[in-house]
Amino acid sequence: xxxxxxxxxxxxxxxxxxxxxxxxxxxxxxxxxxxxxxxxxxxxxxxxxxxxxxxxxxxxxxxxxxxxxxxxxxxxxxxxxxxxxxxxxx
Length: 90
Prior knowledge:
Layout: H1 4-16, E1 20-25, E2 45-51, H2 60-77, E3 82-88
Parallel strand pairs: 2-3
Antiparallel strand pairs: 1-2
Family: Belongs to the BolA/IbaG family.
InterPro entries: BolA, BolA-like_sf
GO biological process, one term: iron-sulfur cluster assembly
């Protein structure tokens, strides 16, 4: 089974063919707090930075909605507590 970070990268590459993509797992910084009471050190808190042409002409909200809709199922099944999204138009 893929790590959560790898799965998000795969899904985003498949959907958007981004010019730049970075997915960072910073779960260890939040181990033991209310969003991660089990103390998991991976897969609960992720940061996404993605740049792609398909965001051109769309508002920031629309861009984020596209990313969220792509990852929604994984966020639920993997029990991701926090997902930071930074979208860019190249």
